[in-house]
Design brief:
- By secondary structure, the protein is an all-alpha fold.
- It is built from 6 helices and no strands.
- α1 packs antiparallel against α2.
- The longest helix has 29 residues.
- It is flat, with a radius of gyration of 18 Å.
- 28% of the residues are buried.
């Protein structure tokens, strides 16, 4: 694990932590204020706020872990992209569904893609070369999930195939970018 362990001490004097955690608080407060002061249709329950807070805490905690275990900025950015891709995939999938409605069973395939990436990262012991493979696998499984959902039987009419394709492409690009950066980090560390 020598290729990723570092102290991360160089970041102690930089306000990145305050910016990151403060940004999470701001994002979490936006729906609250939207509910109070606008008729935007935002209607979050207490459970929604708790779930969002837990998601932000998990993603933020994993990002902090990544910063602590690697001094390599390429590795850190790659990890941030992978975490952003995971967060957005889960959030969008639960909120409106990536394909069809949020009740479409094909959306479970996108959760499986994220879980495969998490499993790959754990199996790689967070080493850059293994993280590259985990991110690439996540991207590939997302493409497969999208194709299965689009080509298979649907429980609702295809009303937004372009939106579904663009959304999936954004998630895939985040994971492909992460894989590329992890590969670069592996070469830099070696």
């Amino acid at each position: 694990m020598n290729d990723t362990i570092g102290t991360g001490g160089a970041l102690r004097n930089i306000p990145w932590r305050v910016i990151g955690w403060g940004g999470a608080v701001v994002l979490l407060s936006l729906p609250f204020f939207a509910m109070q002061f606008t008729d935007s249709g935002v209607d979050w329950s207490v459970g929604d706020f708790i779930f969002a807070g837990v998601m932000f805490a998990i993603i933020g905690g994993l990002l902090e872990l990544g910063v602590r275990i690697s001094k390599n900025w390429t590795y850190r950015i790659a990890l941030a992209l992978a975490l952003l891709g995971s967060l957005l995939t889960i959030w969008v999938n639960l909120a409106v569904g990536i394909v069809g409605s949020e009740d479409n069973p094909n959306n479970m395939l996108f959760f499986i893609a994220v879980l495969m990436g998490v499993g790959g990262a754990i199996g790689a012991k967070l080493r850059a070369d293994g993280m590259a493979r985990a991110s690439l696998t996540t991207a590939a499984v997302m493409v497969i999930a999208f194709l299965i959902a689009e080509l298979g039987p649907r429980d609702e009419p295809m009303v937004r195939p372009v939106v579904e394709a663009v959304g999936t492409s954004i998630f895939v690009m985040l994971f492909l970018g992460s894989a590329w950066l992890f590969r670069r980090a592996a070469r830099q560390i070696a």
